[in-house]
Amino acid sequence: MGIGTVDIIETNKLRKKLERQKAEIEREERFRQWQEGDCSQSAKIMDDSIDDGNEGQFINIVAVPELKKSSNDTFSATEPSTSEVGQMRFTLPTLSRVCDQYGISDRCAEAIASATLQDIGIVTMDDCTKVVDRSKVRRERQKTRALLKNLQNGSGGGLKIIFFDGRKDKMLSQEIVGDRYHKRTISEEHISMIEEPNSLYLGHVTPSSGTGKHIATAIYDFCIKNGLNFNEVLAVNCDGTATNTGRKNGVIANLQNKLGRPLQWLICLLHANELPLRHLFAFLDGATSGPREYSGPIGKLLENCEALPPVQFEAITCIVPELEYSDLSTDQKYMYEICLAISAGQCSLNLSTRNPGKLSHARWLTAANRMLRLYIATESPSANLKILAEYIVKVYAPVWFQIKKEPSCANGARHIFKIISSSRYLSDDLKNIIDPVIQRNAYYCHPENVLLAMLTDERRYIRELALRRILKAREMVSVPTEVREFHIPQLNFHVLDYIDVINWQTCEVTPPPILAGVLNQTLQQCINNTEADLDFVQFPCHTQAVERCVKMVTEASMSVIGESARDGFIRAKIKSRSIVPSFETKKDYKVM
């Protein structure tokens, strides 16, 4: 007969079980002693308080569980049952999502949830089994994030277009020192991706470096790993930085090389609209001197311009399109209202007391707001301040709101033409500053994008001309899937129609890749049938949706540790927002 070794794990379990039983016996004994010594006195205090008419005053909460209302509406002391302590078996997916949506910590969530359960009578002194502790909150959040992450990426159909943007984030990480984990804050590049339409979040990746080649590889590998058919992608949307748009080694060029065919280049028009203003400001007021500082006299006054009282100012005519006011952000609403105020020649008290937005070199919308706020608060504005205010009111703001009203990529060429035509009032020396900037960023004046605009033109003969040019371009291309090098043609700044902004005789005309699935027979039928129009998916011409995802990735980076946790955190926040976008009144709340 052999004797085995001691089972340490099982022994520890038995030891802890005995300790819990001993602690429970001691707790029950303390409760019995408290009941015998203090319960009657607490009941007397409560009866005296009621007799004195002080029903609304605070009563010792320890005595409340021992007092119950009998059938004859008199209070009597009762024997309390032994408090039950056990595991909380309910799942809390909604609480988990809402905590991630509003950035609530596990400790705050446990306190709020348990206090609410106590107030509505679910948690009592007799029954504490429904108390929510932070370990429960943490486990539920982890399960919810994992569940949402495992759901299928994208819309479930073919991936037609991918939007991406990125930034270098500060993020939490763990470092093992000895046998302990220590939190550290490091910087890491994150590229966020969404799918249109409907701005569906795909995920985010960390490229090995910030080069176009490595970013393209990270995006491509992510799609393959997650079962997204990247071979069906027709277009890419991003901002116009050289890393993305380099003709030979940019992100889009590398993605085209991986696919072996061209993609439609849809570069953010809101960025293209702000670049002429940035260069004009730098020319008139000088370069920046810090992350939020300027070196010139106008820039130095922008920081505290909202504190200056409005004065009588010269009105500047402004024509902004009518649009859905509720769709605008707070900063955009300010821009819209102050443009109308300057056009009318007077500023309301309410507008003058509002914040024009945070000053930042990365947010030129708020910088433009502050320039206009400074203009209406300056009795004798300088010539340079007048030039900037006039450009914002006549060019920058109208084009911004036109893009918001007509966000389709099919309107891209028309938006570029509006920037050109609206800015012709400037003097030649100022046009020499902004025209090269417009030229460099006129991606929507590439023949492929101008043809999309022509296909949606109100004039029938323009639509027919576009169809014929697409058919001719397809005949001229020897290999339909051959990767072409993307060149912006030379612009003509002195034309009266967007279709003439490029010289069709000298530039190479290639068919739009976004129409690759449309047969030549379909194009010919649209030419022959005067009532038929070519229908195609019109994706956004700006990157605001993916920029919102970039912000969420930044928030997640400082909230949780690890790529998987970040992704789950973001998906939980998106899911919670989709169910209850806003919660102002009870009718806004939705149960799912």
UniProtKB/TrEMBL annotation:
Recorded name of the encoding gene: LOC114339587
Top-rank lineage group of the source organism: Eukaryota
Protein name: Uncharacterized protein LOC114339587
Species assigned in the record: Diabrotica virgifera virgifera
PANTHER family registered for this protein in UniProt: HTH PSQ-TYPE DOMAIN-CONTAINING PROTEIN
